[in-house]
Structure prediction request, 338 residues.
Amino acid sequence: MKKIGFLSFGHWSPQSRTRSAADALLETIDLAQAAEQLGADGAYVRVHHFARQLASPFPLLAAIGARTKRIEIGTAVIDMRYENPLYMAEDAGAADLIAGGRLQLGISRGSPEQVIDGWRYFGYQPAEGETDADMGRRHAEVLLDLLRGQGFAQPNPRPMFPNPPGLLRLEPYSEGLRDRIWWGAGSNATAVWAAKLGMNLQSSTLKNDETGEPFHVQQAAQIRAYREAWKQAGHTRTPRVSVSRSIFPLVDDRDRAYFGREGQQQDQIGYLDEQTRAIFGRSYAAEPDALIEQLKADEAIAEADTLLLTIPNQLGVDYNAHVIEAVLTHVAPALGWR
Prediction:
């Protein structure tokens, strides 16, 4: 395990310590700063539309980038069904330049949302013969092509400002961002597809239940299939792979009060839609010594190079910084971190 970061969904509600959208945004910036000071490697956010959660990532990523110096900043994931790839390429380039090349942009076709076909309200719909998932992947491929930085637009012969020679590309352009795009794969097939296109892999706490085996076993197999496809595609760089987990070392009375009777100690089975059976990975909450042994048995953590800790952001910045510190101090070294 080379890197450990946190992943926040940015929930807010009037009944929690994170009461508003402003609270969720500002507390995420504060937590990223705290995580950097603690020595964590990454600050990641999830994007959900039509929900009381983080939604528009680029202003937030740019703000985190301006307030930090070292920590990776990223998403896990942006739903590409909702995105204009050209506008997104400009936003991503700007955020990456502000952060000094620290952006790790996780994208995907998305998951079931709060409203029916929410992407239609954003002005998108699948082309004839496409599914919404196909549309999301098509948007992703356009984004990847734009991030190569090649000119494609015919310049105006009488422009307002002088143009460089040749076709024009989108600006601002951030060199190297193309290699820091990740795909959130819910199945083995989409992991293989991501490898062929040269994207890094993000695998979350759920995936399609393809074999009936425990979640971590299926996820490890997905990672191995991805790496084999990457090798066969002939890419020259080494890809990165992240997995997400809910991990809570029980080191004080607050931890025991919140998570000492944590209910989800086993994988769960559910349905993302009428056809898609999914398996949801268990949470981990135990005394540090027991937690280390449980995590060492997690095959997917062993296969990945990056671990994203899903945090209960509504419990506040101080408590979540405590959770991150407890993992980094009491658990991570035994898993090979640093």
About this structure: The mean pLDDT is 96. The two ends are 8 Å apart (CA to CA). DSSP finds ten helices and 13 strands in the chain. The longest helix spans residues 215-233.
